[in-house]
Amino acid sequence: MTFENTLHFAKQLDLQDPLANYKEVFNFPKVNGKSVIYFTGNSLGLQPKIAVDYVNEVMKDWAELAVEGHFYADKPWWDYHERLCTPLAKVVGALPSEITVMNTLTVNLHLLLVSFYKPTTTRYKVICEEKAFPSDQYLLQTHLASVGINPSKAIVEVKRRPGEHNLRLEDVLATIDEVGDELALVFMGGINYYTGQVLPMKEITAYAQAKGAIVGWDLAHAAGNIALDLHEWNVDFAAWCSYKYMNAGPGNASGCFIHERYHSDTSLNRIGGWWGHNKERRFLMEQTFDPITNANGWQISNPPILSLAPYLASLQLFEEVGMEALIAKRDRITAYLAFVLADIAKQENTTYEIITPEQPEERGSQLSVFLHGKGKNLFNYLMKNGVIVDWREPNVVRLAPVPFYTSYEDIYNFGQILIQSSKEI
Asked: Residue 363: exposed, middle, or buried by beta-carbon count in 10 A (0-12, 13-18, 19+)?
């Protein structure tokens, strides 16, 4: 499609957009009395209006049933988390039995490493990407230290080439080859939080597993954003948060994927708890742990129902729309944002350098932009004028046009505010 940076053209795109009405089902903050242009769904998704109803339902059941809500609520609490498995399986390309929801992201990753990082004296190294999200770096450093492995000797980072912003697949595979028989685990972010690059997960997974390694993915920026096929890609394990593209609320519960081939594997270490115990015998209070033979066998404590309620609400929207439709709009609206940035840069004889890959299959709903000569003054101006964006040091603004609630007119209006900023700062 040939784009135009005009209000009329943006409005025409909105008229053609089958998801345009979904903007109305989310609550928007206001700045200067107007709803904001919200570009930070890659950090915290907006609140679906129906989330309040789901939370209020739990509050009402708690008030009227108290402990009996575990079994007699309309959505009984004792298996509430299981309602999320089927819709989440569609989002990440899994079997429902391979999905569970519990705890928060880094907690779950630690628990999964208990099962899947099994170092020996000869095979103990872990490959991750350079400039991984800090929590993943801390996760690996502390987890390895906790099992007696020196992180500085065991963690191997795949580096970007000088002058390049993104990783190359051939460099990832070459690093796997270099580590060789010492490689125990490849653990990387499916999308790099800083650049927005989508890594070729299928290829990396197959290559590392052929070398005898386990492969796990942090999908914090991927779940609900890009097409995933975790079961068919044969991924060993993965986890993601729910508060970015999944719109489940701040710090909310994390989803986990454990491939079905591990569900009955008694050789795996596991941190057990009674909500992972044989469901039919859980309340017999047996002394010996008998884990459920699916991903729910990794549960520990009874789930936080008030947290799961807005997650379930959001998943109803994903069920209605489907990932295929979300991805189709994502590709078009992200391309339109890139076009508007380039057009304005040309008008102003300036540079907005997009460091996110250009190809749709290598990016999701995010453009990371170097603000050459602009800096944090521009970020502050945008925030004060109702454009909510995300700043990352040293000089990057991350823009995430989420297909559920970003309009093409939002993109055009953002461009006009960008032009106005040049006159005022």
From this structure: buried
Q: 3-state class of 211 per DSSP?
A: coil
Dist. CA 73–CA 290, nearest whole Å? 27
394 pLDDT exceeds 90? no
Contact call for residues 169 and 200 (beta carbons, < 8 A): yes
Is the separation of the CB atoms in 374 and 348 below 8 Å?
no
Predicted confidence at residue 292, as pLDDT, reads: 96
Question: What span, in angstroms and rounded, lies between the C-alpha atoms of 161 and 147?
Answer: 32
- Per the CB < 8 A criterion, the answer to whether 295 and 100 are in contact is yes
Q: Per-residue pLDDT tens for 272-316?
A: 999 999 999 998 999 999 999 999 999 999 999 999 999 999 999
Say what the pTM is: 0.96
CB contact set of 390 (below 8 Å; sequence gap of 6+): 39, 40, 42, 43, 397, 398, 399, 400
Asked if residue 23 lies in contact with residue 36, where contact means CB atoms within 8 angstroms, the answer is no
Contact assessment for residue 311 and residue 84, using Cβ atoms and an 8 Å cutoff: yes
pLDDT in tens, 67-102: 999 999 999 999 999 999 999 999 999 999 999 999
d(CA 364, CA 336): 13
CA distance linking residue 182 with residue 176, whole number of Å = 10
Distance of CA 240 to the CA centre of its chain: 5
Cβ atoms within 10 Å of 212's Cβ, excluding its own: 11
What does the DSSP assignment read for 234-257? T-SEEEE-SSSTT---TT--EEEE
CA dihedral 215, 219, 222, 227 (to 10 degrees): 40
Q: Which helix (H) or strand (E) holds 38?
A: strand 37-38
Mean pLDDT over each residue of the chain, to the nearest integer: 96
CA pair distance 107, 401, nearest whole angstrom: 29
- Token digits of residue 307: 């947290």
- State the DSSP H helix or E strand holding residue 312, giving kind and residue range, or none if neither: helix 305-321
Work out the average pLDDT over 158-181: 97
Distance CA 242, CA 262 (A): 24
The predicted-structure confidence for 305-350, as pLDDT tens digits, reads as follows 999 999 999 999 999 999 999 999 999 999 999 999 999 999 988 8
The answer to whether the CB of 301 falls within 8 A of the CB of 107 is: no
